[in-house]
Structure formats: structure tokens, C-alpha cells
Design goal:
By secondary structure, the chain is mostly helical. The protein is built from 7 helices and no strands.
Length: 167
Amino acid sequence: MTSNTFIRIRNFIILALIQVLIFSQIHLFGYATACIYLIFLLKLPRHTNRNELLIWGFFFGLAVDIFTNTPGINAAAATIMCFVRNAILSQFIPKSIPDDLTPAAKSLTWGGYLMYATICIAIFYSVLFLIELFTINRPIVLLTGVFASTLLTMIFVAVTEIFSRTK
């Protein structure tokens, strides 16, 4: 195993613990919950193949599901987000950028990175809330949950990006 693999596993464990112990307990206004573990999935390098992305997404979601007693909804939503992640990312990357790019505000510009992250996170929450509610008969609840959770998670993504740029 390479040092990158060990770093990813360490980050996986740290973010999973923070998600389960802190962020899964916070539900703002009964709608918004931040899933900060999505930062890990968003920051995987561009050249990460789809199978590896799907494995990381599934196991991250499964870890959160196991400790928050949700029957597979995070695993399903994270896996679907990872399935479309590279296609979304390719829309915001110029062709001249190398394959080893790690998505960040400095490599994609702030606007490009925030759009990429917002689309991916909105897909994640759309799937999550559709599975959780298991109906589209309550569109206001669905849209409010998706919007509020996406906004809250994007605040944490932006703050994380700001602090990672100051290193």
C-alpha cells in the first residue's frame, strides 16, 4: 500500500468519526443535516477510476449508516453521487489540466469548485431524501430538506476549502 492509501484511510476514519459523533446529531430546523464526509469524496483526485470512487462512496456511506442506524440510505446516496462525480467534474475542468488534478478552489477557480461541489451534494441529498421519505407526494418537505442540507454542507465545504488554502 502506498502512503496515499494510508492517508486516505486515516482521513476516512477521522471524517467518519466526526460525522457520526458530531454532525449526524445536528438537525437544524428539523430539515438540515450536514454530511461533511462528502468532502472526502469530492476531493479524491480526478484520475480516480469509477470503481474506486464507488467503493469509497459505498463504504463511507455504509460506515455512517451503521453508526447512525439508517438502513443503507447514506450508502446508496454516496454511491450514486460517486457514480456521476467524474462526469460532473469534467464539466468544470479545462482540457489542458493534467489527470492528477485534485479538485479544489485553486485548481478549478472558486466558482467552478463551488458549482461542482453544489451539484454533487445536491444529487447526494436528493437521493438521500427520496429514499428516506420514499414518496414524492410531499415535494415541499423534499425540496426544503435538499436545499437546506445542501446549503449547510456547502458552508462547511467552503470553510474547509478556505482553511486548506491557508496552509
